[in-house]
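Case study.
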Amino acid sequence: MELMIDRLSKQYKNKIAVDRISLRLQKGVYGLLGANGAGKTTLMRMVCGILRPTGGTVSFDDMDVSEEGYRAILGYLPQDFGYYPEFSGQDFLMYLAALKGISKPKAKRKTDELLELTALREVAKKKIKTYSGGMKQRLGIAQALLNDPKLLVLDEPTAGLDPKERVKFRELIQRLGEDSIVLLSTHIVSDIEHIADNVLIMRAGQLVYQGKWTSDDGDLEEFYLNKIAEENYE
Amino acid sequence: MDLEEEYDKIYRYCYFKVRRRETAEDITQEAFLRFLESGCVNTGKNLRYLYTIARNLCVDEFRRRKTEALDEEAADSFSEDSMVENLSVRIALSQLEETDRELLLLRYVNEAPIAVIGRLYGISRFAVYRRVLQAVKNLKEKLGGDHFL
Amino acid sequence: MNKKLRRALKDSFAAPLPVGKKAFLRGVRELPIGNFEFIRTQIAYIRKWVWALSGTIFAFTVIGSEWIGRDMLWCISAFMPLLALGIITECGRAEAYKMAELEMSTRFSIKSAVLARLGITGCASLILICAVTPFIAMQRSADIFRTGVYILCPYLLTAYSGFLAVRKIHGKESLYFCAGIAAAVSVLNMILSQELSCLYIAGNFIWWSAALTVLCVGTAIQCYKMIKQTEELTWSL
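After joint prediction, the assembly is written out as follows.
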């Protein structure tokens, strides 16, 4: 199980959003740190195949990102997502399950399981417009897990979660990292400290650090700020 | 067809026949692999085909072992790890014919459609109904005047 | 066989928990849902009012042609923009409600979903138009082809403008805009047929044919561009 990103780039007319990033990811949780505008979301979108790179390739176990088989093992939670106004939480999950090609009986089973997992059972039949921000985010996480993804890409997943939800989320991610590749991005350092085994730091479209991280390695925040500052002097 | 659910059902069926967890799992996985490769997927023949493969693999397994040892195991395990409430049912089941037990498993526990059972045994749907009803009748007889009735 | 007995049976046949299940199921390629199955699920997601509208138009035509007679033409052509609105909104919903990014990353992806819905609603509309045209033609003792063209023009005009709007305007506003377009075309149609009935005489048919051709091509192009747009995220940076 390996995600290979090879010299991936995205260039707009007068801006380079992602600059020749190369990565090889195996099972585990990878935290992508970087300020807003560093290119994290652009990178993630290319990994999900929804943005075409101007250079480089992305592949998972020899499957190119453009193949249907790649999307079949992918679970994605965008930074911001909407919903059809008439949908309840359950409708939302069933709808996306259909788009993910999951058969109806399995979709029903997975939907129930995931609603239970994200503690949304009680509000499953209520319309999403009645959900709080945290509930909506949990629903987003649930849909990403519908197809038992081997590659899970989460863009700012903890936004809007209260401390209790955050703890549950961290436990969930750690479990998932045991047999899939989880790539999550955030600009909150403490999230990564607690969840990720590996840290990736991005600045201005480039990868400035990549490596393992444990609590023995010191304060991540300090390291991160130093890394960012370092670049300023070059 | 929900792969995960069917896995549980086929596994239960195999375990019922071979009485060993590891072997049952191996057979279940082998059956699924053959089924997926066959290209019969998403046609109406799904379940029937899957059960047939599993059944054939179990038969192959029997041939590999000595029959006597197998029968003894089968007779014992229904009284193993008994919970008091279901003890009477388990004992009644162990007194039934193997074929009756299998029918009850397929019809009431795995909830396999009559058509699937029919094709598995090569008998008509009507014959399946008849045999299932007979199996239930036999079970109730063995249960005697139990509060289940 | 009562519930209690069933449950006891389920217990009795319980097997020790399988160990390798999760790993095995992950290893096998997922049973794909076939293309027809996918289209069927998409049909379920097309909103009911679209079907209700089609049904109403048809019923109205069949039942009403006796009473309304010649005026049936402008009645039905006034409804056509609404029908077109149905198609456009079905295709544009994902983008309007910010579901597009999510839908793009799925196996079937938004492009297939939009194509499926376009196909379904498009076919349905075509069938409806073919079904009602003979009734209307009968009332006016005009030929079916001409009547068909009179009905198709407002339909295609709305479709063309609608697809253009959905492509250029983002968010829910695009849907409101489309509704506005539909209403405008409808009203325009009514005015034209009442005030300028000379437009409908045989001599002027050449203009209608020309308009139809232009609109056909235009709509097809806009449609194509809209589908292309669903292939990747093109607007947000």
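Observations recorded in class. Chain A has a mean pLDDT of 87. The interface with chain B takes residues 103, 105-106, 109 of chain A (CB under 8 Å). We will return to this complex in the next lecture.
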